[in-house]
Amino acid sequence: MTGAALQRIAEEGDMPAGERVHAESAVTEDSAEALAYLVDPFSLVGEVPGVELLQASWSSEQIDYDPDSPEWDLDEEDGDESYDTEDGAERAG
What confidence tens digit (pLDDT) does each residue in 14-56 have? Predict the structure, then answer.
């Protein structure tokens, strides 16, 4: 992700040198900054009827990943969703 963000910065021909140095430093040090150079939140929702984006921000944090922890079970549902069963009954997930 950082490499793609650095490439995007390098391709911006009208960026002043001082701003370029700052941008390169920011995307190298923070993955949220790199993401911000790759994804424009205004373009994501700009065409959605009834939606007006007033402000957007990105943040990230380092976490300890334990693949054996039950907290990291990606197949587990949160339990707040409901779904229809084959017999048409609605069940809580």
Answer: 999 999 999 999 999 988 889 888 988 888 888 889 888 888 7
By residue range, what is the domain housing residue 48?
2-92
72 vs 6, higher pLDDT:
6
Q: Which residues contact 60 (CB under 8 A, 6 or more apart)?
A: 30, 31, 32, 35
pLDDT at 86: 55
Amino acid at 89: A
3-state SS of the chain? CHHHHHHHHHHCCCCCHHHHHHHHHHHHHCHHHHHHHHCCHHHHHCCCCCCCCCCCCCCCCCCCCCCCCHHHCCCCCCCCCEEECCCCCEEEC
For residue 43, give both structure tokens. 């373009």
Nearest to 36 by CA among 68, 76, 9: 9
Provide the domain count of the chain. 1
